[in-house]
Design goal:
Elements: E1 4-8, H1 12-24, E2 28-32, H2 35-44, E3 49-53, H3 61-70, E4 79-83, H4 88-97, E5 101-104, H5 109-143, H6 146-157
Parallel strand pairs: 1-2, 1-3, 3-4, 4-5
Helix pairs in contact: 2-3, 5-6
Length: about 160
């Protein structure tokens, strides 16, 4: 399976270096130079992970993450926040808006790839869980009314 990663950074050199590195290890890469462009790409494409710079003019990485989390299509897509800042306020704000992990600049390629692999494994497990829930639902509604099936699904989720 080829995973699709969206790189969001206003610095063209950062985007190109990240893109070249990620493509060299087999990922499909989309790039955006701003928050609005990133949201358009994420809405129009199946994205498995977002690498998101925190400091961008106009719409910063936090705001982009809020929009991703509020969109049903992208709500579960892992977000790896790229930042030059290592302070607690940056991390706290990132957690508040739904960031899954952080990586600091300058980027260490090995650490970045390990974090990406971990987040993509998490994404794969989430997708498998959703698929299995759909299968279970399809089976249940063959034998019980939908309202009973819904109660069973809620009970299993607890």
């Amino acid at each position: 399976m080829t995973y699709s990663i969206l790189i969001v950074d206003d610095d063209w050199m950062n985007r190109e270096v990240l893109q070249a590195h990620l493509e060299s290890v087999g990922y499909r890469v989309l790039t955006a130079n701003s928050g609005p462009v990133a949201l358009e790409l994420a809405a129009a494409n199946e994205v498995d992970l977002v690498l998101l710079d925190v400091r961008m003019p106009g719409m910063d990485g936090y705001e982009v993450c809020i929009h991703l989390r509020n969109n049903e299509r992208t709500a579960a897509v892992p977000v790896l926040l790229i930042t030059a800042l290592e302070d607690e306020a940056t991390k706290t704000r990132g957690l508040e808006v739904g960031v899954d992990d952080f990586i600091t600049k300058p980027l260490d390629a090995l650490i970045m790839l390990n974090r990406i692999r971990g987040l993509l494994r998490m994404r794969q497990f989430q997708q498998e869980l959703v698929r299995r829930e759909r299968v279970l639902w399809d089976v249940l509604v063959q034998y019980v009314p939908p309202d009973v099936a819904q109660q069973i699904m809620v009970h299993l989720a607890e």
